[in-house]
């Protein structure tokens, strides 16, 4: 009998490149809820909650923020109403926390207060800044790989980072790259994680370094207004430049520009902390058909071809 791979098994077997696979997001809203009135975390939990029920007006309000990404979060045996806002599109990304009395409190979040150097205001009060947070996708009803790979990584993270800093989350995108997580406040996204990666990830994140071999990209690049394709190209170029120049510090490189070239290619430039500028040309093609989700038919996916250019 022929054995078939899961989408995550196939992605790992193909050694799929991770960098340049996370879409842009300026602001992340994390809402603690098991969604009992929606039958729990379904495959499209956020979409379902946006269409009807208690959360529909709340999520519409939050979607008023520019390039907002909304995730539901939870912990085993917990039933609180914690709420977090991560602002990634600024020189110093920040994440803030508040405990809600009721989810309708979110209708009183001042969207205009979500700006550089300003704490978000909820019910007329500044939200509380925190230092770090990790969210691991464990949404097995979206794809079984998210639960199979995500749950062990969640537990390992809770052990190493402290359970108060780690949450399970609904789908963040790219479940074939499970386990996948977002490290805040920068919104750094990783994939193909296993429990034995966790100690190194936490130590490096706290020291301000990126694990480039597991790096999918980040929520946003400070001060840059990039469309989705340019943002993905920047993520692919960043990982290549970091590996080539051995600059792994989060703040070692700053994106300076993305220039569209002929044939759909882009030239992406980063300036290092010492002033040198590194550039790469990124071409994006479609792969052969591959599994993107368990149970779905294979389909082509974008893949990046990155070529380093001389520094200047």
Number of helices: 6
CATH superfamily: Glutaredoxin
CATH class: Alpha Beta
H/E series, N to C?
Answer: HEHHEEEEEEEEHEEEHEHEEEE
Biggest pleated sheet:
10 strands, mixed
Quote the distance from N terminus to C terminus.
57 Å
**Could you tell me the number of beta strands?**
17
Task: List the uncertain runs.
Answer: none
- The name CATH uses for the topology is Glutaredoxin
Gross CATH architecture: 3-Layer(aba) Sandwich
Provide the spatial order of strands within the biggest beta sheet. Answer: 8-4-3-1-2-10-9-11-12-13
Strand content: 25-35%
Proportion of helical residues: 10-25%
User: Structural class, judged by helices and strands?
Assistant: alpha+beta
Shape: globular
Question: What does it look like?
Answer:
By secondary structure, this protein is of the alpha+beta class. The chain has one domain: Glutaredoxin. It is 22% helix and 28% strand. The protein contains 6 helices and 17 strands. The protein has helices spanning 7-13, 45-51, 55-62, 144-161, 198-207, 228-245, and strands spanning 27-32, 68-74, 82-87, 94-99, 109-110, 121-122, 125-126, 128-130, 133-137, 166-169, 181-184, 188-190, 215-218, 253-260, 266-272, 277-286, 302-308. It has a 10-stranded mixed beta sheet with strand order 8-4-3-1-2-10-9-11-12-13. The chain has a 4-stranded antiparallel beta sheet with strand order 14-15-16-17, covered by helices on one side. A 3-stranded antiparallel beta sheet has the order 5-6-7, with no helix packed on it. The chain starts with 6 loop residues before the first helix and ends with a strand. The mean pLDDT is 92.
